[in-house]
Design goal:
The chain is built from seven helices and eleven strands. The protein has about 270 residues and is an alpha+beta fold. It has one domain: Nucleoside Triphosphate Pyrophosphohydrolase, CATH 3.90.79.10. Strands 1, 2, 3, 4, 5, 6, 7 and 8 form an eight-stranded mixed β-sheet that branches. Strands 9-10-11 form a three-stranded antiparallel β-sheet, with no helix packed on it. Strand 9 and strand 10 form a beta hairpin. The longest helix has 21 residues. It is globular and about 60 Å long.
Length: about 270
């Protein structure tokens, strides 16, 4: 099957696994553009193997159970799904990086070590919060984007992107060596330069989001745009241009680049 046939407009979108990711900002110690935390995935991973991505992963049952205690019983399905995604984003970030975002207080390095070990043993965030007396501050995560590809032969995720700010960024990182090989901070522009030079691999959604993030001089600017442009579902599609297939996204979704030649697009 040709790669462009995965995106045929006549096909129904395949089932997708709910997922979430956080773009974590910190101030550049040298005073430059804000830096973002990138996670380089193990080459053995079936999804985005070897690629540099933002921390995150699938929404699991324990995330949904915790979300059910945080929203009113009358909450609609979208409100519940958003809450579960935020919980998953917080949990996955702790597991992958050791960073505690979306928590109501600062967490010391020693606390982070103990809490992440307990989280990995329990497989759920709720027991960690109870043990340490912490509460979630999910409002500190700003909804930024939502992507849902339409591949036929790749695992499909319905991923909500959030952004969060660490400010000074004076934190320690703890790589999860089971799924990831490297954690690093880079501005969006620098990450794109590294990808262009072949030093890191980035998949199509990550590239488009880095291009969008490169336009912000601060977290405040990114948050302002996210609040001004409500996130819409972004589903890439193929369009023929001068006889060649291009992988495209809607032009009005807030992204400065909305198309890439299909054969050059790393899709995960």
């Amino acid at each position: 099957m040709r790669s462009d046939e995965e995106y045929a407009e006549t096909d129904e979108a395949p089932p997708a696994t709910p997922a979430a990711t956080i773009v974590i900002f910190r101030n550049d110690p040298a005073g430059g553009a804000p830096q973002l935390l990138m996670v380089e995935r193990s080459a053995s991973m079936s999804f985005a193997g070897g690629a540099a991505v933002f921390p995150g992963g699938r929404v699991d049952d324990a995330d949904r159970q915790l979300a059910a205690t945080l929203v009113p019983e009358s909450a609609d399905e979208e409100t519940f799904a958003d809450c579960a995604a935020r919980v998953a984003a917080v949990r996955e970030t702790i597991e992958e990086t050791g960073l505690f975002v979306g928590i109501d207080r600062a967490v010391s390095h020693d606390e982070a070590l103990a809490a992440r070990d307990f989280l990995c043993a329990q497989g759920a965030l709720a027991p960690v919060l109870e043990r340490h007396g912490w509460r979630l501050d999910l409002a500190s995560l700003t909804y930024f984007a939502r992507w849902r590809p339409k591949h036929r032969h790749m695992r499909v995720y319905d991923t909500r992107f959030f952004i969060a700010d660490l400010g000074t960024g004076a934190v320690d990182l703890l790589v999860d060596a089971t799924e990831n090989t490297h954690l690093f901070w880079a501005s969006a522009a620098e990450a794109l330069r590294l990808a262009h030079a072949g030093k890191i691999k980035i998949i199509f959604p990550t590239r488009r989001n880095l291009e969008r993030l490169a336009g912000f001089a601060s977290f405040a600017q990114a948050r302002a745009q996210a609040e001004a442009i409500p996130a819409r579902m972004v589903t890439p599609f193929v369009e023929q241009r001068d006889g060649r297939p291009w992988l495209c996204i809607p032009a009005d979704a807030g992204y400065p680049v909305a198309a890439e030649i299909l054969e050059s697009a790393a899709r995960g």
